[in-house]
Amino acid sequence: MKQVRRVAPKAVEEAAGQVKNKSSVIAGISLSHPERILFKEQGVTKRDLAVYMEQASGHMLPYLKDRLVSLVRCPQGRAKQCFFQRHGSAGMPQQFHRLDVHQKKGGEGEYLYIRDTAGLVAAAQIGVLELHIWGSRVDDIERPNRLVFDLDPDPTVGFEKVREAAVHMHDVLEAHGLASFPLLTGGKGIHVVCPLVRRYRWPTVKAFAKALAEHMVEDDPGRYVATMSKAKRKGRIFIDYFRNERGASAIAPFSPRARKGAPLAWPVDWDELGSIDAADVFRLGGSDPQAVSAWESYGSRQGLKAATLRALDIEAD
Questions:
Q1: Cβ 283 vs Cβ 264: under 8 Å
Q2: Which residue from 169, 142, 120 is spatially nearest to 289, judged by alpha carbons?
Q3: Residue 237, Cβ neighbours under 10 Å: how many?
């Protein structure tokens, strides 16, 4: 049984490696206002976040590198004004790379992506508290190589029901020959993630995700819903398959969240999930990414099968 070690909470600076050097330069990035508090309750500073990004980068980059990213920025900290940014703008660090992407409404939009540790630390420098990633990489943005189901519970639904839903989704995917991996979102829910070989374009992958979500709803309509209508979600778990389309994004593994308690989006294994009692138990200052052994087989090659698509009446693109 693989283990994911959740270390006891302690000062962020200690958890980041008992940093003694008060330098404001991390991974070659000069931090302005390094002592600025980003999470007041935990006393997490910009320097603390930058140190975390540096130490987590070896684990985070395999899932985030060369994917277009959307950012939640809170330059003055979580408790102050935050904003969502997906396009490049003046003053962005040079460690952010840019890609012109044709948009649905016409024209080109300049999107951002990160390639290395310096890019992650630069994100901390500009107050990025969340990194959300596309399901495709920049060398072929039209063909996704990951599938994501966001299990988003109504507030009345306990986390044990979300765990059960994740295992149910795992079993449905396994029946179609797909291994999957659970990600605690750092919020209320769980993402079930499948790596894919890049064979089909976005419409095909989304149609497959929709078919699986609707199948689960048909099997248990009292537990699941697959529509965005909040009125229909009461007492149910929303199976959000809409993240599997061009331009959509999902929280990156190991990303911080701009939420109370400084939680992290954290990958676990299926045998570990049963011992987890909330989606936000891993926190900045109390969780060591270098102790993680989850998702070791994530890179295994697998894809949607033509026979499966035909059986679901999905036209491959």
A1: yes
A2: 120
A3: 29
DSSP for 220-238, written as a single string: -TTTEE-SS-GGG-TTSEE
Tell which phi-psi region holds residue 96, choosing left (phi > 0), alpha (psi between -120 and 50) or beta.
Answer: beta
CB 136 within 8 A of CB 142: yes
pTM of the model: 0.91
**The token pair that represents 72 in the structure block:** 């939640």
Question: What is the SS3 assignment for 263-277?
Answer: EECEECCHHHHCCCC
What is the DSSP secondary structure assignment for residue 31, as one 8-state letter? P
- With 0-12 / 13-18 / 19 or more C-beta atoms within 10 angstroms meaning exposed / middle / buried, residue 99 is middle
Is residue 104 pLDDT above 90, yes or no? Answer: no
Per-residue model confidence as pLDDT tens digits over 87-102: 998 889 999 999 999 9
- Spatial distance between the Cα atoms of 106 and 261, rounded to a whole number of angstroms: 40
Please compute, for residue 224, the number of CA atoms within 13 A of its CA located in the half-sphere on the CB side: 22
Residue written as tokens 């540790």? 117
Cα first-last separation, the chain: 39
Residue type at 226?
A
Instruction: Count CB-CB contacts under 10 A for residue 137.
Output: 18
Per-residue exposure over 275-313, b if at least 16 CB sit within 10 Å of its own CB, e if not = ebeebbbbbbbbbbbeebebbeebeeeebbeeebbeeee
pLDDT digit string, tens, across residues 143-196? 999 999 999 999 999 999 999 999 999 999 999 999 999 999 999 999 999 999
Condensed to tens digits (0 to 9), the pLDDT of residues 15-29 reads 444 443 466 999 999
> Any idea what DSSP says for residue 290?
G
Helices (H), 112-201: 117-125, 159-175
